[in-house]
């Protein structure tokens, strides 16, 4: 299994786990007030998962897969079950904020990654690789006799 495939799978798994965690943190109360911890986690973890997946895979397309998985989990958890249970209720502003902030985090991060121009560094003799600063020829000084 290549590093790209493994990195993508880890990124998608992390997105699914964080989505479930954030969804179950949306009804968090403290002293009679809703605590928007899930909103903060949605932004931070989504950006971290996006960064990780891009660093490991170096693929713009594979970088987008965790965001799609995260949104899929959020859609599933916002639907009512046959028993009438729902995790992300529409009357919970933290749940709505979590979805909005999570999608905005993925969108902003993905935009930065997808629109970044690819690195064009070349090594010696046009070979791909880290190149360092261009080498200059030493200046030719005339002989003074």
| SS-derived structural category | mainly alpha
Q: Into how many domains do the coordinates divide?
A: 1
Average residue pLDDT: 87
Write down the overall geometry: elongated
Q: In what range is the share of β-strand residues?
A: under 5%
Order of helices and strands: HEEHHH
Rg, rounded, reads 23 Å
* Helical segment count: 4
Would you kindly provide a written description of the structure presented here, covering whatever features stand out?
It is a single chain. The protein has 145 residues and is mostly helical. It has one domain. Helices cover 59% and strands 3% of the residues. It is built from four helices and two strands, in the order H-E-E-H-H-H. The chain has helices at 3-25, 37-57, 60-77, 93-115, and strands at 29-30, 33-34. It has a two-stranded antiparallel ribbon. Strand 1 (29-30) and strand 2 (33-34) form a beta hairpin. Helix 2 runs antiparallel to helix 3 (60-77) and helix 2 (37-57) packs parallel to helix 4. The longest helix has 23 residues, at 3-25. The protein is elongated. The model has no long low-confidence stretch (mean pLDDT 87).
């Amino acid at each position: 299994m290549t590093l790209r495939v493994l990195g993508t799978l880890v990124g998608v798994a992390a997105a699914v786990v964080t989505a479930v965690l954030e969804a179950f943190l949306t009804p968090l109360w403290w002293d009679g007030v809703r605590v928007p911890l899930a909103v903060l986690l949605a932004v931070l973890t989504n950006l971290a998962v996006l960064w990780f997946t891009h660093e490991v895979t170096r693929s713009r397309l594979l970088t987008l897969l965790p965001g799609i998985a995260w949104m899929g989990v959020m859609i599933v958890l916002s639907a009512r079950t046959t028993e009438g249970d729902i995790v992300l209720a529409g009357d919970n502003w933290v749940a709505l904020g979590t979805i909005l902030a999570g999608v905005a985090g993925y969108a902003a991060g993905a935009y930065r990654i997808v629109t970044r121009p690819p690195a064009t560094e070349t090594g010696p003799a046009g070979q791909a690789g880290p190149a360092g600063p261009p080498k200059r020829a030493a200046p030719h000084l005339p002989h003074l006799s």
